[in-house]
Amino acid sequence: MTRRSTFTELLDLAEGRLERDHAQRVADEIALDDEAALTFAWIEDFLHDARRMPLQEPPPELRARLRDLFAGHHTQQDDSWSDASLLHDTRKQAAGVRSAGVHDSVHLAFDSEGGRFVVEVRPAGTGAVDVVGLVLLNDGSAGTDLTFLEAGVVRRVARAERDGRFEATGVPETVDELRLTTGAVRVRTRLDLRQR
């Protein structure tokens, strides 16, 4: 049985990086193998289209904004975070009469020395939820960045504008921490998004 060329070899052939003998072996395979021929044709089409649409350098303001956005979402542990405490959880503390249906939203309220925030967790499909809420943090006049983490890994980010409202869709329900940053205020809390 002869060895089939890999995708990398087909790409290297299309971009002229193979030695002559190696290139000939791959070209011979393409002539005899319909699947390899289709893959090679796709690679050539892709490279042709990519050359017709060169990437442009983003404006400096956009690059700076993106760098700032991700700089605030590092997961390094330090003492500059204020820990929020859970004030209310509708899964444990009934707030009046609620339906017992499985599609109910969960409401969570938190308090910290940096301010308060509330979140509503809505089912969004298997293993995911939508999270909407209101952030009322001190120094939040310019908006608040929210980071949803799972075991220290960033899974979603959202932004609450000046009015404090935010929405994050398709958040994995396995997320276990929420971090909020605005100005010098940095708040974090453990988070349980399961609907149970």
Structural class: alpha+beta
Percent strand: 25-35%
Shape: elongated
Q: What low-confidence regions span 5 or more consecutive residues with pLDDT below 50? A: 97-102
Q: Could you spell the SSE succession in H and E letters? A: HHHHEEEEEEEEEE
Mean pLDDT: 84
* Overall helicity: 25-40%
DSSP summary, beta strand count: 10
Strand order of the largest sheet: 1-10-9-6-7
Contiguous helical run count: 4
Radius of gyration: 25 Å
Question: What is the terminal-to-terminal distance?
Answer: 54 Å
The description of the largest β-sheet is: 5 strands, mixed
Write a concise keyword list for the protein shown above.
10 strands, five-stranded antiparallel β-sheet, 4 helices
Helix and strand layout, with pairings?
Blueprint: H1 7-14, H2 20-32, H3 34-52, H4 60-71, E1 82-83, E2 85-89, E3 106-112, E4 115-123, E5 128-137, E6 144-150, E7 153-160, E8 165-172, E9 177-182, E10 185-190
Parallel strand pairs: 1-10
Antiparallel strand pairs: 2-3, 3-4, 4-5, 5-8, 6-7, 6-9, 9-10
